[in-house]
Specification:
Helix 3 (48-62) runs antiparallel to helix 5 and helix 6 runs antiparallel to helix 7 (135-156). The chain has helices spanning 2-19, 26-40, 48-62, 64-68, 73-96, 101-126, 135-156, 168-173; strands spanning 98-100, 162-164. It is built from eight helices and two strands. By secondary structure, it is mainly α. It is globular and about 50 Å long.
Length: 174
Protein backbone atom coordinates (compact mmCIF):
# COMPACT_ATOMS: atom_id res chain seq x y z
CA UNK A 1 0.00 0.00 0.00
CA UNK A 2 1.26 3.52 -0.70
CA UNK A 3 1.12 4.52 2.96
CA UNK A 4 3.40 1.65 3.95
CA UNK A 5 5.80 2.53 1.13
CA UNK A 6 5.76 6.16 2.29
CA UNK A 7 6.78 5.12 5.78
CA UNK A 8 9.54 2.82 4.53
CA UNK A 9 11.02 5.25 2.00
CA UNK A 10 10.74 8.18 4.45
CA UNK A 11 12.58 6.13 7.08
CA UNK A 12 15.29 5.12 4.59
CA UNK A 13 15.74 8.73 3.42
CA UNK A 14 16.14 9.96 7.01
CA UNK A 15 18.74 7.24 7.64
CA UNK A 16 20.53 8.27 4.46
CA UNK A 17 20.56 11.90 5.64
CA UNK A 18 22.15 10.79 8.91
CA UNK A 19 24.75 8.60 7.20
CA UNK A 20 25.73 11.40 4.82
CA UNK A 21 25.75 13.87 7.72
CA UNK A 22 23.21 16.07 5.97
CA UNK A 23 20.99 18.48 7.84
CA UNK A 24 18.04 16.55 9.22
CA UNK A 25 14.93 17.91 7.54
CA UNK A 26 11.76 15.91 7.88
CA UNK A 27 10.01 18.04 5.25
CA UNK A 28 12.79 17.41 2.74
CA UNK A 29 12.75 13.69 3.56
CA UNK A 30 8.98 13.61 3.08
CA UNK A 31 9.21 15.41 -0.26
CA UNK A 32 12.07 13.21 -1.45
CA UNK A 33 10.19 10.06 -0.46
CA UNK A 34 7.16 11.26 -2.46
CA UNK A 35 9.30 12.00 -5.51
CA UNK A 36 11.01 8.60 -5.33
CA UNK A 37 7.72 6.76 -4.94
CA UNK A 38 6.11 8.66 -7.80
CA UNK A 39 9.09 7.96 -10.03
CA UNK A 40 8.76 4.27 -9.23
CA UNK A 41 4.95 4.19 -9.45
CA UNK A 42 3.31 7.31 -10.94
CA UNK A 43 -0.19 5.88 -10.42
CA UNK A 44 0.23 6.36 -6.66
CA UNK A 45 -0.52 10.05 -7.19
CA UNK A 46 -4.17 9.23 -7.90
CA UNK A 47 -4.68 6.89 -4.94
CA UNK A 48 -6.40 8.31 -1.89
CA UNK A 49 -4.18 6.27 0.44
CA UNK A 50 -1.07 7.95 -1.02
CA UNK A 51 -2.64 11.38 -0.79
CA UNK A 52 -3.93 10.91 2.75
CA UNK A 53 -0.66 9.42 3.93
CA UNK A 54 1.36 12.39 2.71
CA UNK A 55 -1.12 15.04 3.81
CA UNK A 56 -1.33 13.57 7.31
CA UNK A 57 2.45 13.13 7.53
CA UNK A 58 2.85 16.75 6.43
CA UNK A 59 0.46 17.90 9.15
CA UNK A 60 2.23 15.88 11.82
CA UNK A 61 5.61 17.30 10.74
CA UNK A 62 4.38 20.89 10.52
CA UNK A 63 2.70 20.78 13.93
CA UNK A 64 5.25 18.55 15.66
CA UNK A 65 6.47 21.30 17.98
CA UNK A 66 2.94 22.39 18.82
CA UNK A 67 1.82 18.86 19.66
CA UNK A 68 4.95 18.28 21.74
CA UNK A 69 3.96 21.27 23.90
CA UNK A 70 0.53 19.76 24.59
CA UNK A 71 1.60 18.27 27.91
CA UNK A 72 1.72 14.60 28.81
CA UNK A 73 1.91 11.67 26.45
CA UNK A 74 -1.87 11.29 26.26
CA UNK A 75 -2.37 14.98 25.42
CA UNK A 76 0.37 14.84 22.79
CA UNK A 77 -1.21 11.77 21.22
CA UNK A 78 -4.64 13.43 21.23
CA UNK A 79 -3.15 16.59 19.69
CA UNK A 80 -1.42 14.56 16.95
CA UNK A 81 -4.70 12.75 16.27
CA UNK A 82 -6.51 16.07 16.00
CA UNK A 83 -3.89 17.44 13.58
CA UNK A 84 -4.14 14.27 11.49
CA UNK A 85 -7.91 14.52 11.38
CA UNK A 86 -7.89 18.21 10.42
CA UNK A 87 -5.32 17.72 7.66
CA UNK A 88 -7.17 14.73 6.21
CA UNK A 89 -10.56 16.42 6.33
CA UNK A 90 -10.38 18.31 2.99
CA UNK A 91 -9.42 15.16 1.08
CA UNK A 92 -12.09 13.09 2.80
CA UNK A 93 -14.69 15.72 1.96
CA UNK A 94 -13.48 15.88 -1.62
CA UNK A 95 -13.62 12.13 -2.20
CA UNK A 96 -16.61 11.11 -0.11
CA UNK A 97 -18.63 14.34 0.04
CA UNK A 98 -19.72 13.68 3.58
CA UNK A 99 -18.42 14.17 7.08
CA UNK A 100 -19.42 11.95 9.96
CA UNK A 101 -19.83 14.11 13.04
CA UNK A 102 -19.01 11.03 15.08
CA UNK A 103 -15.52 11.07 13.57
CA UNK A 104 -14.83 14.33 15.38
CA UNK A 105 -15.49 12.52 18.66
CA UNK A 106 -14.09 9.08 17.83
CA UNK A 107 -10.74 10.00 16.31
CA UNK A 108 -9.20 11.69 19.35
CA UNK A 109 -10.53 8.94 21.64
CA UNK A 110 -9.52 5.89 19.58
CA UNK A 111 -6.24 7.17 18.06
CA UNK A 112 -4.16 6.93 21.28
CA UNK A 113 -5.28 3.35 21.87
CA UNK A 114 -4.51 2.37 18.27
CA UNK A 115 -1.02 3.85 18.59
CA UNK A 116 -0.46 1.94 21.82
CA UNK A 117 -1.56 -1.34 20.22
CA UNK A 118 0.76 -0.72 17.25
CA UNK A 119 3.68 0.05 19.56
CA UNK A 120 3.12 -3.05 21.67
CA UNK A 121 2.68 -5.24 18.59
CA UNK A 122 5.94 -3.86 17.13
CA UNK A 123 7.81 -4.65 20.35
CA UNK A 124 6.41 -8.17 20.27
CA UNK A 125 7.25 -8.58 16.57
CA UNK A 126 10.84 -7.39 16.87
CA UNK A 127 11.61 -9.13 20.14
CA UNK A 128 10.23 -12.68 19.78
CA UNK A 129 13.23 -14.02 21.67
CA UNK A 130 11.83 -12.30 24.76
CA UNK A 131 8.58 -14.29 24.60
CA UNK A 132 8.79 -15.59 28.16
CA UNK A 133 9.24 -12.04 29.51
CA UNK A 134 6.51 -10.68 27.24
CA UNK A 135 3.64 -12.61 28.84
CA UNK A 136 2.48 -9.48 30.74
CA UNK A 137 2.75 -7.62 27.43
CA UNK A 138 0.51 -10.22 25.78
CA UNK A 139 -2.09 -9.73 28.47
CA UNK A 140 -1.86 -5.95 28.19
CA UNK A 141 -1.98 -6.09 24.38
CA UNK A 142 -5.06 -8.35 24.44
CA UNK A 143 -6.70 -6.04 26.97
CA UNK A 144 -5.87 -2.98 24.86
CA UNK A 145 -7.35 -4.56 21.74
CA UNK A 146 -10.41 -5.59 23.75
CA UNK A 147 -10.79 -2.02 25.07
CA UNK A 148 -10.45 -0.62 21.57
CA UNK A 149 -13.07 -3.04 20.22
CA UNK A 150 -15.40 -2.16 23.10
CA UNK A 151 -14.93 1.57 22.42
CA UNK A 152 -15.66 1.13 18.73
CA UNK A 153 -18.74 -0.96 19.53
CA UNK A 154 -20.01 1.80 21.87
CA UNK A 155 -19.43 4.44 19.22
CA UNK A 156 -21.26 2.29 16.66
CA UNK A 157 -24.35 2.39 18.89
CA UNK A 158 -24.59 6.15 18.38
CA UNK A 159 -26.67 7.01 15.31
CA UNK A 160 -24.44 8.34 12.54
CA UNK A 161 -24.94 12.00 11.77
CA UNK A 162 -23.47 13.08 8.47
CA UNK A 163 -23.01 16.40 6.84
CA UNK A 164 -23.47 15.64 3.16
CA UNK A 165 -23.24 17.54 -0.08
CA UNK A 166 -20.71 19.26 -2.22
CA UNK A 167 -17.69 19.94 -0.04
CA UNK A 168 -16.07 22.67 -2.14
CA UNK A 169 -16.71 25.67 0.12
CA UNK A 170 -15.76 23.81 3.29
CA UNK A 171 -12.76 22.06 1.72
CA UNK A 172 -11.45 25.37 0.37
CA UNK A 173 -11.78 27.03 3.77
CA UNK A 174 -9.91 24.20 5.48
Amino acid sequence: SPSVWRAIVFFLVTILFERLRLEKSELTALLLSAVLLLLAEPRFLFQISFQLSYVIALGVILYKETTMKAGGALRRTLAAGLVSMLFSLPLLLLYFQQLSLLTLLATPLIAPLVQLVILLAAIYLYAPFLTQWLIPLNTFLAGSIGAMNWGVAQLNRIPPYFLEGRPWPLALIL
